[in-house]
Design a protein that fits this description.
Strand content: under 5%
Helix content: over 70%
Structural class: mainly alpha
Distance between the termini: 64 Å
Largest sheet: none
Shape: elongated
Radius of gyration: 36 Å
Length: about 130
């Protein structure tokens, strides 16, 4: 029992001595060169422009996501209008009504394509916000 106590006391002394000696500063000699690649973390951490850059990135993400969702909803709306116009075109009996429904279908298809381009622009803006 006493040997275990003695081992713990010696271990405690070694730990105390190691902690005490570790605080001794290193000696600097005149022939040692100064480290020119030293990084000063204080300047990096106190960068005032970082918060402004971070807000800009978040604005880009929000705008990109809003564009994707908005133009995605427009794409769906114009797709539904084009489908209903095309089904009316197929079910109409007169040529004048068929032409009118077909022109509406073409118009809504073009608007759907433009809204799809808006979705892609929003997606690119969203991806760009991460860089």
């Amino acid at each position: 029992m006493r040997t275990n106590l003695g081992v713990f006391i010696l271990l405690g002394l070694f730990i105390f001595a190691d902690a005490t000696w570790a605080q001794v500063p290193e000696r600097k000699y005149a022939w040692q060169k100064q480290d020119t690649l030293k990084i000063v973390y204080k300047d990096v951490l106190n960068n005032d422009n970082y918060n402004a850059q971070k807000l800009d990135w978040n604005k880009k993400r929000v705008i990109g996501t809003a564009l994707m969702l908005g133009f995605g909803a427009l794409t769906y709306y114009y797709h539904q209008r084009a489908e209903s116009s095309y089904s009316s075109y197929l079910n109409s009996g007169s040529i004048s009504q068929m032409d009118a429904h077909f022109k509406r279908t073409e118009k809504f298809d073009k608007l759907k394509g433009l809204a799809g381009i808006g979705v892609e622009i929003g997606f690119l803006l969203n991806v760009w916000s991460f860089f």
